[in-house]
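Batch manifest, entry 17 of 40.
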Amino acid sequence: MTELGIAHLSLLQLDPAELVHVAAEAGFQFVGLRVRGATPSEAWPDQRPGSPASRATVAALQASGLRVRDIEFLSLDGRTGREAWMPMLEAGAALGADTLNLAGQDPDVSRLTDTLAQLVSDAAGYGIVPALEPISYNVVSSVPQAAPIARAAGARVMLDPLHLQRGGSSHGDVAALDPSLIPVLQLCDGPAAVPEQITVPTPLPRGMSALGGPRQVESRALRLAPGEGAFDLVSLLRAVPAGVPLSLEVPNNGLVSRMGAVGYARYLREATLSLLERMAPIEPADTVDSMAAGRSHGH
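Output type: structure tokens
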């Protein structure tokens, strides 16, 4: 059976150990954890091995039987170096993570590739492989951009359906990836296009003094559960290797406020199981037709 996990962005108000407990109560098998803020204003407790936060998270993992698959978040912007990623690797190794999720913000592709290759080399000693995520509002915004950089550096590619949709990547682009490049598939849903009117949620997500433009607001705080929007997630799931772990990355402050953390986590898991139950085997020709249709709707 496909393993289901929950990404930290879905419940960013929780500390890592709290997220593990909530994920276990909701029936997930793994979590993705933040060990470094995605923005300068997003502060997190010290999670170096042996720190109180690390010990609490390790204890929660041991008590629940859950595992950590990926840690985040790192942006390679041309200035990022070992001082940023070595503490992340140390923290991730203590938690048993095998993937480090990162974004490409350096417009110099050659320098970005070299930096990522250095990170890959450093990460190997910790049993961790970096995964470059194409993010629609970043320099590396699509699968065709991310894939050659990842291959050249020895990294992987992290896929997120919101950014595939908004960044113009097709399901054909995904299907063309070497299966070994896909460690986890993040999962969420949303409208076919960025809403013309977006209300910034209050309070803002943890540590965020601002959310940026409409794409950033949607990405960080207004996603929909799988099956609740217009994304062709069935075609996406058929474009990735069978059995790839699914990580639910669905931040939605309003629903969390109404349902509570455990209720929201259960809601995401049940929505995903319903989506998976609706899937049925199809012929390869149908897959190609479906991908083409998905692209015509904004992929």
